[in-house]
Design brief:
- By secondary structure, the protein is of the alpha/beta class.
- It folds into two domains: 28-239, Metallo-beta-lactamase, Chain A; 248-395, Four Helix Bundle (Hemerythrin (Met), subunit A).
- 30% of the residues lie in helices and 18% in strands.
- It is built from seven helices and 15 strands.
- The strands form two sheets. A nine-stranded mixed beta sheet has the order 7-6-8-9-10-11-12-15-13, with no helix packed on it. A six-stranded mixed beta sheet has the order 4-5-3-2-1-14, with no helix packed on it.
- Strand 11, helix 2 (178-186) and strand 12 (197-201) form a beta-alpha-beta unit.
- Helix 3 (248-268) packs antiparallel against helix 6 (336-352) and helix 5 packs antiparallel against helix 7.
Length: 404
């Protein structure tokens, strides 16, 4: 009888182990399908962040300085949607915030029953012992892209995290010696897991990579997207850990555009889903159409510019149909706070990738834009928010406008 109990106990334990391994090795496509562009950023002291269009942020603290210096427990800022993780423990979590929810969640993957298409999954099968540096590699699945973040001396751990023909899209490697990484990439045994892009710190040394495949970025941000990562020779990127600084001539018009967006958000955030969906008897647009239209125009115009400069940014057209009879709301269940968040996401998107405007003056015609100058576009966006917000406020005085 005891033998049978031991066998059953062993089978139960083995099943749990297999489930755990499957969760770590399987694709996270169930959590990340939207295809929106991500921002990968390098920060001082071996910190790497991944930021999504939805406004979720994952900060990975590799902490290579010493065993103790990098120690950091999972740290979630639920209001901003930011989580910071270190190399102290095994992780298989999902960062998400569903529409109409105020706070983000950081939940073990096996407990995540409902996830939005914008969820970010973070896996780190390793951990840190008391007297050894962490033997771990971080895998981040977001918006259809798989990103590996790893210290250079832990590259040997990467291969065991992928099965079959699955490979990472981007690998961010914290190292002081680019030559060692290049030697690792040349080994035939590692060919199956080489990503489309390898990202290193500009402080890691010079490159012997062919010039057409080597790129240097003089700031800390890179855009990547599922649609933009093409089949091509592996690309190498060297980035600094310092943010891009917007030139003074762009600061004022950019700030004014953002302020107009924020002012509109204050109006729409107070509305319920019922009020947003209100169809005036005079045949004019619903309040929700105005929110979608303002957001959609800015997103389209700026993504056209960014796409013309870097095809990692797709052209993003979320504009609603123009005429009221043809209009179908994109998200009829969203309340006003969520519509305001969507406006802010677009504003953040424009700011996040504004480094692509490097070398463009306000009086220049931007690549991919139909506007005569960049300044004209930003002034129109500022005016556009004001006009449609005023139109929406006027609807509040109609006799049939819902009370709540």
């Amino acid at each position: 009888m005891k033998s049978l109990e031991i066998v059953n106990s062993y089978r139960s334990s083995l099943a749990k182990v297999c489930l755990c391994l499957a969760a770590l090795c399987s694709s996270a496509s169930a959590f990340a399908k939207s295809g929106d562009p991500l921002a990968i950023r390098l920060w001082p002291d071996d910190v790497v962040s991944v930021e999504s269009f939805w406004g979720l942020e994952v900060y990975i603290d590799l902490g290579r300085a010493s065993v103790s210096d990098g120690a950091r427990a999972n740290d979630l800022d639920a209001t901003s949607g930011r989580v910071t993780v270190g190399t102290d423990q095994a992780i298989n979590h999902v960062l998400d915030r569903l529409p109409n929810q105020t706070l983000a969640t950081w939940t073990p993957a096996e407990q995540t029953r409902v996830a939005s298409p914008h969820a970010i999954r973070v896996r780190c099968p390793g951990g840190r012992s008391e007297d050894q540096a962490a033997s771990s590699v971080f895998l981040i699945d977001a918006d259809g892209v798989t990103i590996v973040v790893v210290a250079g001396d832990q590259l040997r751990s990467v291969q065991g995290q992928f099965v079959g023909d699955v490979r990472p899209d981007v690998m961010v490697i914290a190292t002081d010696d680019a030559a060692k990484v290049q030697a690792w990439a040349r080994k035939e045994s590692n060919a199956a897991i080489l990503p489309r892009r390898i990202v290193l710190s500009s402080a890691s040394g010079s490159s012997d990579v062919d010039g057409s495949n080597a790129h240097r970025i003089d700031h800390n941000t890179m855009a990547v997207s599922a649609s933009g990562l093409k089949v091509q020779p592996m690309q190498w990127f060297w980035m600094t850990d310092q943010p891009w600084q917007m030139k003074a001539s762009l600061v004022k018009p950019f700030d004014a555009m953002e302020a107009a967006c924020q002012k509109s958000q204050q109006v729409f955030a107070k509305l319920s889903a019922k009020q947003l969906n209100f169809r005036p008897s005079n045949g004019t647009h619903t309040p929700r159409w105005n929110a979608e239209h303002m957001m959609g125009r800015q997103l389209l115009f700026f993504s056209q510019i960014y796409h013309a400069i870097d095809d990692q940014i797709p052209v993003m057209d979320q504009n609603p149909k123009q005429m009221p009879p043809d209009y179908t709301p994109a998200h009829p269940e969203w309340d006003g706070v969520e519509e305001a968040r969507q406006m802010q996401r677009v504003s953040d998107f424009c700011r996040r990738f504004a480094y692509l405007l490097q070398g463009i003056e306000p009086e220049d015609k931007a690549p991919g834009s139909r506007w005569p100058t960049l300044r004209a576009l930003m002034k129109q966006m500022q005016r556009h928010y004001g006009e449609h917000t005023t139109n929406t406020i006027a609807k509040f005085e109609l006799v049939d406008f819902p009370d709540e």
